[in-house]
Write a structure and sequence with these properties.
eight-stranded antiparallel barrel, elongated, 43% strand, 8 strands
């Protein structure tokens, strides 16, 4: 009987012990915390205008971050969209032997050569003087033309010319040769005035005022001429260039004495090799 009573008391005490572990007790040893008083805002006075916001002192305001200017970058670190030229001509003398042939005369083919001297005042402009000599060759069309027209062909046989003018190079570029080396080139335009000598300049036909002023010319009377042309030059070396060009020479001539003078147009294809002096150059920033 006593054992049964002890067992019943133990079963009744187990839920009480479990509840004591789950629910913590109150700690009455520490005094309660005091609540801090809340700061009360003053009431808004709507009768007065609002004050503007105060600016922070200059030393406290953050400084604006400005982008880097070109002055802050070293000259060697600048990256240009267009790279500098690889060939400079300013202040250099140019000597160019030329091979020339006409391209617009179906009856008398003219083949010759000449020499051009040029001094480059700027990298894109030069003053030049060119002298050329031509030798005419009759083609097979001369006989057929005489038979068809039953008369003498009106042709002006150009013997030589001396032209003073300028050369302007407005376009400069680079080209890859066979995918390995880079060749510099430019496109040029030329214009000038000068004198030409033709086969019809002999005898009394041109004993006018112009020939009277040039007694040193002898019996060969030159004619005033204008020259226009253009082409492209390639620069494989610092002192060497290859040139391909086309020039048109305009001058008055009188192929037959009984007819008035007419304006002659001779188109000449030129192939040349230019040599530059001094042989080297130093790049100068503009």
């Amino acid at each position: 009987m006593g054992r049964i009573l002890v067992s019943a008391l133990l079963l009744a005490a187990l839920p009480a012990a479990a509840g004591a572990q789950v629910l913590p007790g109150l700690d009455l040893s520490q005094p309660p915390k005091k609540e801090e008083p809340k700061e009360e805002l003053p009431p808004l006075d709507l009768s007065k205008p609002a004050e503007p916001a105060r600016k922070a002192p200059a030393e406290e305001r953050p400084r604006a971050v400005l982008p880097f200017s070109e002055k802050d970058v070293a000259l060697g670190d600048k990256v240009k969209a267009v790279q500098r030229k690889g060939f400079m001509k300013r202040g250099r003398l140019e000597v160019t032997p030329l091979f020339a042939t006409t391209v617009n005369d179906a009856f008398y083919q003219k083949i010759g050569g000449g020499l051009r001297l040029a001094y480059n005042l700027q990298d894109s402009f030069a003053v030049a003087i060119r002298g050329s000599y031509y030798r005419p060759y009759r083609t097979d069309n001369v006989r057929e033309g005489k038979i068809a027209f039953q008369s003498q062909l009106l042709s002006s046989q150009l013997d030589g010319q001396l032209i003073l003018g300028g050369i302007w190079s407005p376009v400069y570029g680079k080209a890859a040769f066979l995918g390995e080396s880079i060749v510099h080139f430019d496109v040029f335009l030329s214009a000038g005035f000068g004198l030409v000598w033709t086969a019809t300049g002999d005898g009394p036909r041109y004993e006018g005022a112009f020939c009277a002023d040039l007694p040193l010319m002898g019996e060969r009377c030159p004619k005033l001429a204008a020259d226009l042309g253009g082409g492209v030059r390639f620069y494989p070396r610092e002192w060497l260039a290859f040139e391909l060009g086309l020039a048109a020479t305009l001058y008055p001539d009188q192929p037959i004495a009984q007819l008035p003078a007419t304006l002659q147009r001779v188109f000449v294809a030129n192939v040349g090799v230019s040599f530059y002096f001094p042989r080297t150059f130093e790049y100068v920033h503009p």
